[in-house]
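Data availability (excerpt). The following record was deposited with the supplementary files.
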Amino acid sequence: MNKLEILLIATILIYPQVDLINEKYKSKNKIVEYIKIAIFLWVPTILLIFLYLNGLLSIGDFKFVVEYNWQNILMLSLLFIAIIYVFLLINSIRINKELREEIIKKFENYQDLMPVTRNETIVFSIIVSVSAGICEELLFRAYLYNLIEGHIGLLAAVLLSSVIFGLWHIYLGWKEVIRTGIMGIVLCGIYIFTGNIILPILIHIFVDVYSGLLNYNSLCNSHDESN
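Predicted structure:
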C-alpha cells in the first residue's frame, strides 16, 4: 500500500471530524452549504479515481460493467417503478394535506439541510444528490468494502464499511448515523447482488433526490394553501 492510498484511508476516517467542525461554521445560505458538501465529497473521490486509473490501489476492479443478467434487470425494473411512484406521490402531496403534514414532520429535524425553495431543490438534486451518489458509492462500496473484504471477509466488510459510512453523517445526529449505516448495508447488498457499482450509484442518487423533492413539495404546497 503506497503513501497516497494511506492518505486516502486517513481522509475517509477523519472526514466525520471535519464535518463536525464545518457544522460550527455553517452558512445561512443553503446553496453555499450544498457546494461545500459537494467539494468535501469530491476531494477524496478525485484522489481515489487518480489512484484507480494509475493502478495504485490495493484493489483492482470497481465493477463498472453492468452485465445483462436477471439481477440487474430486476434492480433496474424496481428503480423504474420507484421513479413512477415518486411522481404519483408528489401528485398526492399536492391534494392531501395530511400527507404533507406527515412528510414535513418526518423531515423536521433535517430542515437545516433539506431544500425549501425551487433553486435550493435544483442545486440539492443536481449537485448534492449526484455528488453523494457517485462519491460515497465509489468510496464506501467500490473501494472500502472491497479493501476490507480482501482482508477479513465479506460480513465484516459490509458491517465495517457501513458503520464508517454512517459516521460520515454524524453531524446530523446519532439517529441519522444509525439510519445511514443501515442504508449502507442495503447498498452493499445491492453492490454484491448486482456485481456492479453503477446501480448502487443510481439508487443512492434516487434516494437523495426523492428526499429533497418530498420535502420541497410538502412545504411548497403547505405554504400555497396557507396563502
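Summary of structural features: The chain is about 80% helix and 0% strand.
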